[in-house]
Amino acid sequence: MEKRINDLIANMTLEEKASLCSGVGAWHTKAIERLDIPAIMMSDGPHGLRKVIEDDENGNQTLESVCFPPAVNLASSWDRDLVKQVGQILGETCQAEGISIILGPAANIKRSPLCGRNFEYFSEDPYLSSEMANAHITGVQSQGVGTSLKHFAANNQEHMRMSINAHIDERTLREIYLNSFERSVKEAKPWTLMCAYNKINDIFCSEHQELLTGILRDEWGYEGLVVSDWGAVNERVDALQAGLELEMPSSDGIGEKKIIEAVKAGILKESTLDHAVRMILNLVFKALENKRTFHAYDKNQDHSKAQKVAEESMVLLRNKDHILPIKESKKIAVIGEFAKKPRYQGGGSSHIKSFKVDTPLDEIKKLATDADVEYAQGYDINTDEIDNTYIEEAKEKAQQSELTIVFAGLPERYESEGYDRTHLKLPPNHNRLIEEVAKVQENIIVVLSNGSPVEIPWINSVKGILEAYLGGQGMGRAVANLIFGKSNPCGKLAETFAVRLNHNPSYLNFPGEGDQVHYAEGIFVGYRYYEKKEINPLFPFGFGLSYTSFDYSQLRADKTEITDEETLQVSFKVKNTGKMQGKEIVQLYVAKPETKIIRPLKELKGFAKVELEPGQEKAVTIELNKRSFAYYNTAIKDWHVESGDYHILIGASSADIRLQTTVSVTSTVKIKPFYHRNTTIGELMEDPKAKPVIEQMAQQITKGMGLSDISKENPAIALNMVRYLPLRGLINFSKGAFTEAILEEILDKLNRN
Ligand code: BGC
Fold first, then answer.
1. What does pLDDT average to over the chain?
2. What confidence score (pLDDT) does residue 57 get?
3. 43 C-alpha to ligand 1 centroid (Å)
4. Partners of 464 in beta bridges
5. Which of 212, 311, 326, 464 has its CA 20 to 30 A from that of 31?
6. Contact yes or no for 329/402 (Cβ under 8 A)
7. What is the per-residue pLDDT for 58?
8. Average pLDDT value for residue range 221-246
C-alpha cells in the first residue's frame, strides 16, 4: 500500500494533488480517474445514518433509517458495551449503504446547559465523555467503517459557532476540553477527526498548528486524517500547514487554487501538500480495503435494539410513594401532545429520517390491557400559547383517572444545532398544564423529552418524573416498558440539573460578548463547580433511581501506597437488596483533601454498570493509574501528580458516596523550582534546601526593614512579615550588606542545586 501511494504521489501533477485536498459536493472525496483513485462517501450520523440520496431544490432527501437515542441518552446509559453495540449497528448500516465514514461521535463538553447541540454531546465530565466516544468509535470501526470524532475542539455553543473566539486557559483546555477527546483518540484511533468551526485563543481550530499537529499528532500520536467541519476552513493554505488535510465540503475549486498558487509562490512546501495527499489516499484505500461485499442489515431488528438502548438510557428522577412502576390502575389518563407526536431526536445535521417511530400512547395502551386509557392533547406542540380549552379537557380526564401520565418537554424549536437556548424553562403551556392537572390529581407521572436540562418548577406537585431525554425512534416502547415495570430504569445523569440557570458556572460568560467568549469558570465545569461552591443542584451528576436497591461493601485497594508509575486495583462489592432485577451504575471519584493546587473536590475517574438479580452480589474492580490522580501542570507542560494522600470514593452518584478509602501516591517526577529576582522569601522558605539560607539572613532583613524589635520578640512573626518580599528587595533593605552580585551568586547556586 505504501509503495502504491508513493508511486501515485510521484505520478500526480500539482493540480491533481491540490484537487484531492477538498471534497466534491457535500459528501464525497474526489476521484481521479486517470490514476484510478476512487471517491469515498461520508455521511452524517452519529446516532443513525443520515445518507443524503438526492439534493434538489426541495432540499435534501435522506435515506430512511433507524434513529437510535442520541449522545445525551447514550451517555446516561454509562454502558460502554451498549454504546459499542450501537456503533457496530451503525457500522453495518454504513457498509450496506456504501458509506465509508460516519460523521461522529461528538465529544464536546456540555459547558452550559443552553448549548443547542448538547443532545449530541455526551457529558459535562471529560472522563465519561471520552469513554463513551471511545466505545462508539470502537463499535463503528469494528465493522470496517471509519468515524469522524468531532468537533475538535471547544465547540461548546452554537451562538456565533463559526467565528466565536473561545478564550480558555491552558490547564482548563487540557483537563476539560481536550481531555474529552484524548483517550478516544489514543485508544479507539478514529479514522478521521473533524476540526471545529470556532477559534481557540485567537486561532481558528482549522489553522491551529499546536492543536492539530503539536498536541494531536506529536503528543497523542494520532495517525488518522483531519477533516474540516463543513465550511470551517478560513484560509486554505494556513489550514494545510497547520495539519488539516481534507477540506469539506467542496469549495468549488477555491481551496485547490489557493494551494496551487502557494506552492508555485514558494509559500507552501510541496512536501506539506504531499503529506496531506498521502493521508487522504491512505484513508481512501483503507476504506476500500474494508468494504464488504455482502450487505445485510435488518431495520426491524435494529429498531428493537433502539428500543432497548432507549430503555437503558432513560433516567428515573423522582418516584415518590413508589408510584412507579404502575401497579393495578383501571383508569389512566395520558396527557400531552408529545404522547402522540414524540420528540425523540434533535435538530440539525444529525436529524434522521426514521423508518418508523413508536408512539408512546399506543405503546402504553398495549401494556395497559386491563385499563381504560384516555388521552387529552393538553397543549399544541407548535406554539407556547396557553390554551384553556386543552387544559380544561386535560383536567377533566385527569380527574376521572386513577393515575395521570403527562408528556412534556422541549419542542424542536427550543433546541437544535445552529442556535442556543436563552433559558432553561419548559414552554409555558407545558408548565401550566402540569400545574393545573396537579390541582385535580395527585398521582401524576411526568415523562420529559428534552436534549438538555430544564428547570422543573412543579417538581413537588408530581410523584414521578422519568427523564426520557430524546430516546430515538423506539422511545415510546421504552417509556411504556419502564413505567409499567417491564424493565427497571438504570440510567443516570451524565450532567447536573441546576435549580436555576444562574447557578451554572458558565452563566456570567455564556455565550460571550460579540465574537468573544471567556471560559472564566476554568476547570470548574458542572459538578466540579456546584460541589466546590456548595450549591445544591436539582439533581446531581451521576444521579438516577431504580425500582430496586443496592448495597455497597468491602472496598479495598490492592496497595496503600503507590508511585505515579504504578497502577492501583480498587475493588468492592455491590448487592441487589431489592426484589427486582436491575442494573447499578457505580462511580469512582478521586479527591485530594490537602492540596496546594486549585482543584475540584473530587473528579470521576472510573465507573461500571453492573447487572444483578435480586439478592445477587458481584465484585467490581476498577483500575486507576497516574492520570486518575494527576492535574495538568502548565509549568512542566505535562500531567503531574501531587505527592500525598488521595481519597478513593465509591458512589451511587456524585452526591451519594457509599464507600471511602485512602491511598498515598508519590510522584516520581520532581519539579525543579526556578528562582529569580522576584521569587519571594516565602517561596524560598518552602524549599528545604533554601530555608536555612533565608533563616540565617532573617535578622539582617528584619533590621533593614525596621522590624528588628518584632524580630527579637517573635522571630516567627517577623518571618511572616517578610514572606512576600521579593529577593531583589533584599538589596534595598540590607543597607549595603546584600548586593546584586551576592543575589546573583545565591540564585545561581540555588538553581544549580
Ligand atoms: C456540523 C457537523 C456535521 C457537518 C456535516 C456541520 O455543520 O457541525 O457536525 O457533521 O455539518 O453535515
1. 95
2. 60
3. 9
4. 319, 445
5. 212
6. yes
7. 64
8. 98
